[in-house]
Amino acid sequence: MSDTSPFVGDIPSTIGCPFAPKTVQCPESLGKYLQFQTIFLDEGVSVGELRFKDYQLGGRPPSYPPKPEFCGVSLALEQCSLFDIKEGHSSPSHPNGIEESHCPPPHPNGLWYDDGSVVLKTGDNFFRVHRSILSQKSSVFATILLPTQEENTETHEGCPVVVLDDDSEELRQFLLTIYEISYFEDNARYFVYLRAILRLSTKYEMDRLRDLALQRLKRGVPTTLASFDDPKYKDDRATAQKNVLAVINIARETNCLELLPCAYYYCSRLPTGTIFEGNGGVVLASPDISACVLGRDRLLNMQRQTTHSFLYKLPTLAVGFGCKGCGANESDRLLLDYLQRQDLTRPCTFEQFTDWKKIGMCKGCAPLHQHMESRRDAWAQLPRICGLESWEKIVA
């Protein structure tokens, strides 16, 4: 039997632990026997082994296939096969599959007003602005910009200087937003801008601006499954996924806990080495690392049991197979062929499956209602999977 099998010998799992292929009987149209080996059958590895071995390998073996996109509705790109593990396989363009986000374009406003009454200094940068405007917008500014009678107060061109410890570029973006109403909408598509606004509006207690930044971030890191599925926010989700480590950190810093469940889900799809070691200088705290790694194990189990269970069952036993309109033998062949091209090593728990024809199902036999219901149930459980309270308690 092994001489005729297309998959002979052990296949390395993504956690660096070889395991024996599982042999199952398939329809006669596909041959006598196939060794049907998939990563998701590797259930004998403990979470402790996952953390240790994945970390040793930097998150994925050297021959792992390129990372497919996962912000769309398809489960995975078909050119990425579970069985296509070969030496010398091309690696992704970025070792961690994360791209740097772009910054807002340069702005002509130098934030130096001749009639300004106070100079804000941060690093080597100075901004001459109006005490009255900032004090009206923020009670914190109203306090720290109070006129002082001390003789040793530093001045610059006759204006008192107030030294702040904020990042110079973030403060510049923040001040431009305060002075120009349209500046927020013009630049809200940039994650680095939204992060600056959320951080400083929280620090200086500007609640309205904070709410604007938070609501915009929720387009990419949604709190509802309907928003997660909304095609209008596809670009926002892609941006959030590329910056997911920074999203988690700013959510912790500003106490925006509602951003964490979906951000943890995005992060659980990254290589374990990236989760542990960070990327581009952005590093997660230990509690967030644990939430992502342990959450991934639970999410994979959930999609195996409920949300995408139709992909984890043997063809002749799967729900709906054997439909006279589809043809049982053809459905068996299509499902096996489809699975060979999928990457199920990362959670796809909340991705909406749409490729029913590609696995041999028609509209009549596809378990669409069950799929949608199980996704909604799983979404409701997501915060607790990540170690948080329910959606009702964490959403502002």
UniProtKB/TrEMBL annotation:
Name of the protein described by the UniProt record: BTB domain-containing protein
SUPFAM superfamilies in the record: POZ domain
Record-linked CDD domains: BTB_POZ_ZBTB_KLHL-like (cd18186)
Native species: Suillus subaureus
Classification lineage: Eukaryota, Fungi, Dikarya, Basidiomycota, Agaricomycotina
Domain BTB: 116-179
Pfam families for the chain: BTB
